[in-house]
Structures are given as C-alpha cells and as structure tokens.
Amino acid sequence: MSDKYDVIVIGSGPAGYVGAIRCAQLGLKTACIEKWKDKDGKGINGGTCLNTGCIPSKALLDSSQKFHYAEEGFATHGISTGKLAIDVPAMIKRKEAVVKQMSGGVAGLFQSNKVKSLYGTGKLLAGKKVEFTDNEGKTTTLEAENVILASGSVPVNIGVAPVDNDVIVDSSGALEFQEVPKRLGVIGAGVIGLELGSVWKRVGAEVVLLEAMDNFLSIMDQQIAKEAQKIFTKQGLDIRLSCRVTGTEVKGRGKKKEVEVTYTDKDGNEQKEVFDKLIVCVGRKPYTEGLLAEDSGVNLDERGYIYVNDLCSTDAPGVWAVGDVVRGPMLAHKGSEEGVMVAERIAGQKPLVNYDIIPNVIYTHPEVASVGKTEEQLKAEGEDYEVGTFPFMAVGRAVASDEAEGMVKIIADAKTDRVLGAHIVGPSASDLVQQVAIAMEFGSSAEDIGMTVFGHPTFSEAVKEAALAVGGHAIHMPNRKKRK
C-alpha cells in the first residue's frame, strides 16, 4: 500500500464518497477511510445515510405505506384483500438487503474509479498527514497533498432519556424493531421523528410525538406546516407541541419492559405516559471524536462544527471539510455537492455551491418539501413578495390516484416576479419541489413556470397552477385577490 496520495478522504458517507469519486475522476490519486462495520465486522461504505439513515428509513417507509394502503386504501378501488398481517422481521430483512445493495454499490464505484478503500479510523495530524488505524489495529501514517474531512454526524443524546438500545432507542435503533410496539413514544416531532413515527403508526402502533417547540415544523413555511399537521393528525399521529420531557423510568423485565415518560405540557402541568418503546430523535451533532490531533491546525466553531469558509476550506492549508461536520443543513445532497466542489477546487476549477437553493424533504406520506425562502423569513427581512397556492384536490391526476391532500405554494418577488421559494405538502413533493429548484437556479420568474407546458394529467400541474396563481392567473381554481 502506497502511503502517499493526492487526496485522502476521511469518511465515506454521501459527502465523502462523492468527493472521493470526483477526485479520482479528475486524475487525483485518492484514498477514502471508513470506520463503519457491518454486523459481521466487515468494513462497509456509505456512512449514516446508507446504513442507518436515508436509505433504510425510506425502505421501511415504503414497506409500511404499502401495508397501510393495502389495509385501508384498496377497498376504494374495489379491491378486496381480506385480513392482512405484517411480518416485521421480513420487512426489516428487506431493508437490510436494500442497505447491502446500496453500500455494495459504493464499493463498486470506488473500484471502477480507482479509489483506494481503507477500512479503519483516520486521524488528521499536522502537515496534512493522516494516522490510519485499520480494523486489525495496525497503524500507518499516510501523506497527502489534500485531506477532506467528512466524518458526518451522530444523534444527540439527552440526559432525561438515556438510550439503552432496548426500550429507549435512537433513530438507528428504531430501524431494528422486530415487532410492532403497541404504544410508541417519540421525543421530537421533526423530520426524523415524523418519518419513524409514520413507519410504526402505519403498521399498527399508537404513536405519540412529544415536541418541545411551540410551532410544528418551525423551520418550514408555516402555512405548509399547519396543513401538514392537519393531515398527520388525521392519520392518527398524536402530535403534542410545547411538551418538554423531564424524565424517563424503565420498568419491568423482559418482554414486559416499558418506559414511563414524565413531561410538562403546554400549560406547564406535569404529565406521564407509558410506552413499550421510546425513540429519541431531538437532532444530530457533528462527529469529530478522535478525528483531529491537537496540532492539526483545524479549528471547531462554538457549536462543535469544523470551521470552514464558503469553499469548505479549514484553517489548515490543504485541509477541507464537508457534509454534516460543517455548517449548513445536515442533508446528504448538500454534503455531496460540497464534496464535488472541493474535489474540483483541488483540481484547479472554480465551482461554488448555491446554498440558497437546497431542497429539504420530509418523506412522510404525503411528503413535505421546500426550497428557498419561507414566507416568515421574507416577512422578517421586510421583502415585498407575492404568493400563489394551489391545492391537489383540484388536480385531476391527484384525485384519480387518491392523493388529493395538500397544496403547492410558490413565493415570488413582488417587483421582479423572480421565484424566491417553493413549499409543498402532497404527493411526490420531493420531486415536484426539484422542478422549482431548477427554475430558481436559472433565475426564473413565476411567469416563466406558468408559461411552461406541463403534461396532463400529472401531479406537476399543481406547480404550474401555483405559479400562475402568483399573478392571479390560476385556471383551475378561483384566484384570490392579490395582497396589497
């Protein structure tokens, strides 16, 4: 094994593996270090996203939605199924097969692009040297012209609900249940809490989400958030806002174990609830444990993120950092784009990441998605804007598909008509919002989208109609009077 590389990447999640592949494509001799192991103790690529995050959670979301629709939606179409049952171990086994396929795909991409895969841990030393300890404990010092830190993030733990990986679990543990809990508690009604709560609600659990914030999905456009809350409540998710967990106590033994959760409600009163399982998902934090030698020259900010500039360059020359371990939204696609930008910068190109246009998606059913500014942000900034909304209940394809809940909202500058944001709750929201993201990347106006020919019948027509509604020109719904 050669100890000298053009680029060494530490971490093979979406930021790291994409960065490594792009470096290799640009002719740079590249190695990627990954400490993750599978259940057999074998090194595996993909990081949190592929192994315990994006991919496995979507596999379970898809399985649970199919079961739920077969149980409650088929009859509308005249399809009789009889009594249904969910085989949870089989559902989990399918999830694991999906993870294995996708992580194996990264290994294949490394091989075809000639990225050297190193399984073990990496520690950045001074002078762009990396201390690599393989999974057998052997330590080697590697040298590189450039080092990319992509060590990712881990779930935040809270003292009042210590994870025991039995009754109290984090987001990773919630993907491993072997049976449906009768009563499931979730601390945190954010993206992860809603997705995991949805999975187990669909297959029969009673789900209570305890959220400390006063507003539901406070980071999202609040008109869309309120619509989403209404839909999720109708689905049976018990979402309790302004609730702060103050303690937990695990009781019983074996299969009779349960956890009593104490919390204060919105009125300040102490409440107690008993659950068979409790998921703690109150956010994630950057992971830098064992990553940096004291003299590495890389600094952390006050929140524990690696400090970087707009180009993802750290305070140490030739050392870069990307993904969840640096500022910005903890999103796989954001990290991937940073990985590409850094690789191309190392190769002498001059790309930038447009941080103003990064889509954000919650993969519930229906999905919730956004890109750009919310109405609340624009109000706070004193911007003059116009809004267009359009409901899916007026979209033929949505009605025909039993997917008529939700709406599309597009916000545009009042003077220039340039699109400033798009917010959607509804069918295929993750894909529809991307249409607007592309338009925004090219500086499109709402009129540009409204003048574009959209196929009929498609869910996408809601995007066109919302864009038309910005100027009061929607065709398939009465137009509201424009704001004064």
TrEMBL record:
GO terms for cellular component: cytoplasm. Its EC number is 1.8.1.4. Keywords: Cytoplasm, Disulfide bond, FAD, Flavoprotein, NAD, Nucleotide-binding, Oxidoreductase, Redox-active center. The keyword Plastid does not apply. It comes from the Bacteria. It is an enzyme of class 1 (oxidoreductase). NAD(+) binds at G188, A189, G190, V191, I192, G193, L194, E195, E211, G283. The active site is at H456 (proton acceptor). Binds 1 FAD per subunit. Residues 5-339 form the FAD/NAD(P)-binding domain. Pfam families: Pyr_redox_2, Pyr_redox_dim. Belongs to the class-I pyridine nucleotide-disulfide oxidoreductase family. This is Dihydrolipoyl dehydrogenase. It comes from Gilvimarinus xylanilyticus. The gene is lpdA.
